[in-house]
Specification:
Elements (H helix, E strand, L loop, with lengths): L15 H12 L5 E7 L2 H17 L4 E6 L2 H5 L3 E2 L11 H6 L1 H18 L3 E5 L2 H14 L5 E4 L11 H5 L5 E4 L4 H8 L3 E4 L8 H5 L4 H7 L7 E5 L4 H22 L3 E5 L5 H8 L6 E4 L2 H10 L2 E5 L3 H8 L3 E5 L3 H5 L11 H6 L6 E3 L5 H13 L1 H18 L6 H11 L5
Parallel strand pairs: 1-2, 1-4, 2-3, 4-5, 5-6, 6-7, 8-9, 8-11, 9-10, 11-12, 12-13
Length: 417
């Protein structure tokens, strides 16, 4: 669905008949335990689908699901109030463009949940959408527990949000192992580490056979291979891709030829192709998820934008150099940030083992120099490899899966299993 179709709410009016049917379905009485789940984007739909499957496995009595979600949650039995694509927006500009639609959906969701009076409510990530809903629901349904699956980044900026969350969130289900301690220190709600979804993939990622990709791309294995990850948003790519290209040219002159693999997504592929078309080295652009992790395993090192991809690289055991550049407005607000690192693996282990370069320090010279060290200095390389193994250990739960642990906590709020 085109993004500009949301500039006017009237283009896609809410189907009031559908809403009435949904509210009637939610309000039906019976012996079922009724759980409302509210996701705001597709990554939340992935988490929600896994959570719902685990809830069904653990709960002996019938469960009924309602709320907002996408295809995976609907596959598990969710009757979504409206299509997830209508609210799955990222970034302040996109949010402002769709603000009337988003506000209406917030109030619509609140009213429907109040009519349903469920046993428990789970909001999933997307705090710009889900937290306004949770605040209103806590006032109107004070006796219904509200759980937040995926903590906002209160450890990075706007730390005061944690204390405010304690007023309307009963329990945070955290994906990162350091987040419970952060919430405790900031006066936030009760918080439990349930595990990151990557924890379930670490073993399979390590077992990936890289030979098919190596053969298909006809890579020269006498040359080092680098994974290049300039981000998944156009704004990220525009700020980093030219610096990355200059860094790689510097590296090639100093070290010799390298293989370049760029895993990316379909909606930004054209930007990558346009930006790398005049690079002097051959670039292989990869679109498949399996190819992405095979590329990580093939690569001696990676150059990446800060974000979740750094945890994926850590799960693959790929040493990395991380870059972070934001727009001038965000840079002026940097004083709001209270975090020792912008690299998630560094935060997981509590020390800066992965080199990172932000804003003015994010230069071709700095990036190429750090990549050169990873390729040529065995001590530097081994130190980071050891740190990445530590990240993997911290991400893995002692038992079970993240979805199952999250489901266990949700069920505690509805009287157990």
């Amino acid at each position: 669905m085109r993004q500009d179709s949301f500039l006017l709410v009237s283009i896609h009016p809410i189907n009031e008949a559908q809403v009435q049917i949904w509210e009637q379905t939610m309000s039906e009485t019976g012996l079922e335990t009724h759980i409302v789940l509210i996701a705001g984007e597709h990554s939340g739909d992935n988490l929600g689908g896994g959570l719902m499957a685990s809830l069904r496995q653990l709960h002996a009595a019938p469960l009924r699901f309602s709320g907002v979600g996408g295809a995976l949650m609907e596959r598990e039995g969710l009757n979504s109030l409206f299509p997830l694509d209508e609210i799955a927006v990222m970034g302040p500009v996109a949010i402002l463009k769709r603000l009337p639609q988003l506000v209406r959906r917030v109030y619509q969701t609140v009213d429907a949940c109040v009519a349903a009076n469920p046993d428990v409510i789970v909001i999933i990530d997307s705090p710009e959408f889900t937290h306004p809903i949770a605040k209103r629901l806590k006032k109107r349904l004070p006796g219904v527990p509200i759980l937040n699956y995926v903590s906002p980044s209160v450890w990075a900026w706007r730390s005061g949000r944690a204390r405010k969350m304690a007023r309307y969130i009963d329990h945070v289900l955290a994906l990162l192992p350091f987040e419970p301690e952060v919430h405790a220190g900031l006066g936030g709600p009760k918080c439990s580490y349930v595990g990151h979804p990557l924890a379930e993939k670490i073993e399979s990622i390590g077992a990936i056979d890289t030979a098919p990709l190596r053969s298909r791309l006809n890579l020269d294995m006498t040359q080092p291979t680098l994974a290049i990850l300039p981000g998944s948003r156009p704004s990220e790519i525009s700020r980093l891709i030219d610096i990355f290209g200059a860094a790689l040219q510097r590296l090639s002159k100093r070290h010799g030829p390298v293989n370049i693999l760029i895993p990316t997504l379909s909606h930004v592929r054209h930007l990558i192709e346009a930006a790398t078309g005049d690079w002097p080295m051959k670039v292989h652009i990869l679109m498949d998820e399996e190819d992405k992790f095979a590329a990580f395993r093939l690569s001696e090192a990676a150059l990446a934008a800060s974000g979740t991809v750094t945890l994926e690289l850590a799960a693959a055991g790929t040493p990395m150099v991380v870059a972070y550049r934001v727009d001038p407005l965000a840079a002026r607000l940097a004083w709001l940030v209270k975090v020792p690192s912008f690299v998630l693996p560094n935060l997981v282990i509590g020390r800066n083992a992965v080199p990172e370069f932000m804003q003015d320090e994010c230069t071709a010279e700095n990036l190429s120099s750090s990549l050169f060290d990873l390729l040529t200095d065995d001590a530097v390389r081994q130190d980071q490899l050891a740190a990445l193994r530590e990240v993997q250990k911290k991400l893995v739960l002692d038992h079970g899966t993240p979805s199952r642990r999250a489901a266990e906590i949700v069920l505690e709020y509805i009287g157990g299993q």
